[in-house]
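Consider the following input, taken from an annotated entry for RRM domain-containing protein (Tieghemostelium lacteum).
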Amino acid sequence: METSIESTTKMQIGDSNQQVNDTSENNELKTVNDDTDTINTTTTTTTTTTTTTSTNNTQINNDDLKSLIIFNLPKFTDNKKFVKLLEKEGITGFTKTKKVVHDNFGFVHFDKMETKDLIFQKLDGKMLAKCTEPIKVSERNFEKKRKHIETQTKHFEKKYKQEQIQQEGNNQDADTETTLKSIEDVVSPWHQKSYSDQIKLKHEAMELILKKSRKAIYKDTKHAVPKWISDISKINDVICPLESVVESVEKKGYRNKCVYTIGFGIDDKPVIGFALGRTANGITIVGDPSNTLIISEKSKQIKDTLQDYVRAHARPPWDKWLHSGFWRQVTVRDFTTGESMVCVQVNHKGLTQEERDKEKQALKEYFESQPIEKQVTSLSIQEYDGISNAAPVDLAVEVLIGSDFINEKILGLTFQVSSNAFFQVNSKTTELLYSKVLEWARVSQDDIVLDICCGTGTIGQCISKQVKKVIGLELAPDAVKDAKANAIVNQLSNVEYHCGKAEETLPMLLQTRKVSIKEGCVGIVDPPRAGLHQDVIKSIRSFESIKKLVYVSCNQNSFIQDCVKLCKGTSKTMPGKPFQPIKAIAYDLFPHTELCELIILFERIE
Ligand SMILES: C[S@@+](CC[C@H](N)C(=O)[O-])C[C@H]1O[C@@H](n2cnc3c(N)ncnc32)[C@H](O)[C@@H]1O
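Applying the prediction step yields:
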């Protein structure tokens, strides 16, 4: 599975699978106001006032409400300690404070100008113990953003109502968090756990999935429970033996793909990073991931190079509330071959063709002018004026430097990967995962392999020399184009690819008997997060020369449903003999997150 640290939180660092995807977005004022951690301090004799008729010249009305941002605070200081720190420095008169834990900044609200002066005087430039940089106090004038916020609020209320209706009842796990997350929590939510604890937790989680699968099959087949299920002694047992979780080869900087959001940081400067919450929850602030664990140094360097350009550029980043702005997101891929790809998404609405061409030329020249260590293999641009950053997968990409793909090496073969095509995000551990798939498939030279959801053809091509033929089925046209090109580069003549939905191409293929019913056949399925379409499972079941099926799951909740369909007794909806799970093993392709890949070997019950 590919995950994008997109903010599905899809960290399109996030694809269907994982880009750390960008469904997370932000409204900074809303975040501050909503924050339950905010303290209304009683250390002050001044109270927030709404009057504008005060005789006190220094008192300001709500329209002039001010706050300051204090940078370079100790990371783990919470709001209470922050208040103590202010008091210790002799600062009084503030009305509200907020310290973002795990980050180095906090806010102080006040309603008298003396307080502001006092904060500057006492804190600005002060060096605190355990800090490497002196405190920096910065003005934060909400007035500047008032209009913007009013529009946002209206939009938010409308959108929030719609989302409430949609989510009610069918999405109880929805993230409704309205406070800012730290960038580490967005990018690598398990960063505070030791790696051995993470592996232990993942093993327990996979064990639970295998237990739940057993229960689900039992429940679904009440009157005709498969014998192998009733043979499992304990009701709460797993459906098949689970081997130990295989650790990631690299624990840090392992991600070869990140989908960064281009937006505004806490200090209102353009930032390339990840949203610190969900837009639906009123959060659009983007955090800088430079100090996070799982992004490669190369990827960080590329996003910094682009960030310098965006900051110096006249056009602003895309505003997720106002639906205007130019820079939207950037996908960065960097492979173990040293090749790197940058695909920048911009909003071209309202620009003339001449302006658009000028922007492209300038971006190209900027990247070409970089020193050799900052050069990229491929630079492309995607123009998109939709509301969400998630553009259609087949949206055109215009190449500015190099070609529209870069190459990665897996198990000695070369794979070109287009910007729109899926590729596992952790290349080195993927080699271990694929090796296990090949081992468990136990193919022979007479076998035909059906590589269902084959992406750029990786698994099928790695096994092709050991079998008679590989047939790959894949939805994304760019991935199929890559798979065909990869077969040529890897000098493989026994592979063929079919583009389309597997639920349509697989039944057609089997009906037209392109695969003879007598041939030995091994199925390999590596579906997206939603799992397999019912018709794919139906075809696999009815095509009885598939004796073995290796299932690679990136979303184990959808796996449970597929497992039931593969294993339940024969019926009209699920024809053919059922399968039985034989063994399972998980691979940690995503250290410091809760995700992992699970392989399950199924065999046909004869
Ligand atoms: C988890 S990826 C696996 C790709 C490949 N096996 C690999 O390891 O690189 C899932 C793939 O399924 C494809 N896909 C999604 N829905 C599909 C469908 N209905 N029919 C065929 N392929 C589909 C996606 O485009 C993606 O390439």
